[in-house]
Amino acid sequence: NAALRLSGISKGYNKGLPNEVQVLHEVDLTLAPGELVALVAPSGAGKSTLLHIAGLLDTPDSGGVEIGGEDMTGLSDRRRTQVRRNQVGFVYQFHHLLPEFTAAENVLLPQLANGTPRPEAEARAGQLLAQVGLAARADHRPAAMSGGEQQRVAFCRALANAPRLLLADEPTGNLDPATSDTVFEALLGLVRETGLAALIATHNLDLAARMDRQIRLEAGTIHG
Ligand code: ADP
Ligand code: ADP
């Protein structure tokens, strides 16, 4: 089964209004399990819209979304939420960690919310943080960490519930080049280790070139 399959996805905003905008035109995209794909797009091309649709945070006007072989069309909100929580991880340009919790707790919380027993959740949090070189930072709050460290914690949190699909929107967008590189290496390690599929929007062409495949989103259509 494909980790993600988008078929004929179209999406617009403000239908019928003077400011109507058609953002996606019949987009087709398939990610195999374990595949790391760069999504390269100029600003405003619709990449956030595409990622939100792929991650079930938004619905297309037409077209199909399949995650792990399951067709998401017509599913109840309850089931969509379940799939989003269990099978999809998100990372954004800004980490959105909870400031009052430590790194380990930030990775723990989504697991507890999902019903994972605390000892198991703690073990997984420790293991994920160690994998990205942050074992020594587990008990630090986000404010005590650098931008690159915060973003590595955000990756760990996104992977806390062992999703099959990772969606990232400019995950290194606010980091300097050297830090971007370290954070990207950490991400690469996690993706390769877990075998999940990842769709990563980036403006950084060097990073894009190091992924398995690049796709460009231009004028609402996928190229490459
Ligand atoms: P990107 O992430 O590539 O910058 P977006 O998907 O955020 O692009 O937006 C694509 C286009 O859709 C832009 O023109 C944007 O202004 C418009 N857009 C995005 N979200 C909305 C919305 N909720 N309502 C109206 N227009 C929107
Ligand atoms: P304790 O220290 O008592 O074990 P935690 O701080 O680990 O408690 O949080 C316990 C639960 O409270 C978690 O399952 C979490 O879902 C919830 N929780 C508390 N504060 C927040 C918050 N700001 N955002 C999300 N969940 C929270």
Automatic annotation (TrEMBL):
Gene3D superfamilies linked: P-loop containing nucleotide triphosphate hydrolases
Matches recorded under SMART domains: AAA
Any Pfam family: ABC_tran
GO MF term set: ATP binding
Keyword field: ATP-binding, Nucleotide-binding, Transport
Transmembrane spans: none
Entries under InterPro entries matching the protein: AAA+_ATPase, ABC_transporter-like_ATP-bd, ABC_transporter-like_CS, ABC_transpr_LolD-like, MacB-like_ATP-bd, P-loop_NTPase
UniProt keyword Thylakoid present: no
Protein family (similarity comment): Belongs to the ABC transporter superfamily.
Protein name: ABC transporter ATP-binding protein
